[in-house]
Design a protein that fits this description.
The chain has a single domain, classed as 3-Layer(aba) Sandwich (Rossmann fold). Helices cover 36% and strands 13% of the residues. The protein has seven helices and five strands, in the order βααβαβαααβαβ. It has helices spanning 12-16, 28-41, 55-65, 100-103, 113-127, 130-133, 144-154, and strands spanning 3-7, 46-51, 75-77, 137-142, 174-177. It is globular.
Length: 179
């Protein structure tokens, strides 16, 4: 059994360079990227899709579902997989500092790094039992920041200070993860 992670297709917030809110939809390019992601997993024996509750991730999963041989009953929303919450900063332009969304600790009531680490540990704890419950593979559709924190925690880095600087992932690009 394998697990794959993909970031959602391009959202309006990605295109407009704003710190996004949960209800940010896909752009036309994001829709096309989601179809390409669907094509890329068509031969991966996906049995289960785990998806963030944020609109852009749900839209991506819905499009991917059209490309594989499972039903919507095999798509499960995992609430803790949502993107980092940016508090009062949601909907504002991203600051010019590179990788700000990954590195800042807390501004304007945003989720702190420690809160984000604790939440992603819950995601990992909920995903681990799935390895033994299904025969096929699992596709996780989430977000860049949450995905970065998940990769770092799975690599054994228990604190933000130990994390790598390998931040960004392209929209709708597939990567295998070890859980």
């Amino acid at each position: 059994m394998k697990m794959y992670f993909a970031r959602h297709g391009q959202s309006v917030a990605n295109r407009d360079k704003i710190l996004s809110a949960p209800d940010t939809p896909l752009t036309q390019l994001g829709i096309e990227q989601a179809h390409a992601l669907g094509d890329s997993v068509a031969d991966k024996n996906i049995e289960l899709i785990i998806v963030s509750p944020d609109l852009r991730a749900i839209q991506t999963a819905s499009i991917v579902l059209d490309h594989i041989d499972i039903t919507s009953s095999n798509v499960h929303i995992l609430d803790e997989l949502h993107e980092r919450r940016f508090g009062k900063l949601e909907g504002t332009l991203k600051p010019p500092e590179p990788n700000y969304a990954y590195t800042f600790d807390s501004d304007g009531g945003a989720e702190t790094r420690d809160e984000l680490i604790d939440r992603i540990k819950i995601v990992i704890k909920k995903l681990k039992p799935l390895r033994d419950q299904i025969k096929g593979n699992i596709l996780i559709i989430g977000h860049s920041v949450a995905g970065y924190y998940m990769r770092e925690l799975l690599a054994g880095h228990e604190s933000y200070e130990a994390f790598s600087d390998d931040y960004n992932r392209d929209n709708a690009k597939l990567e295998e993860i070890d859980l």
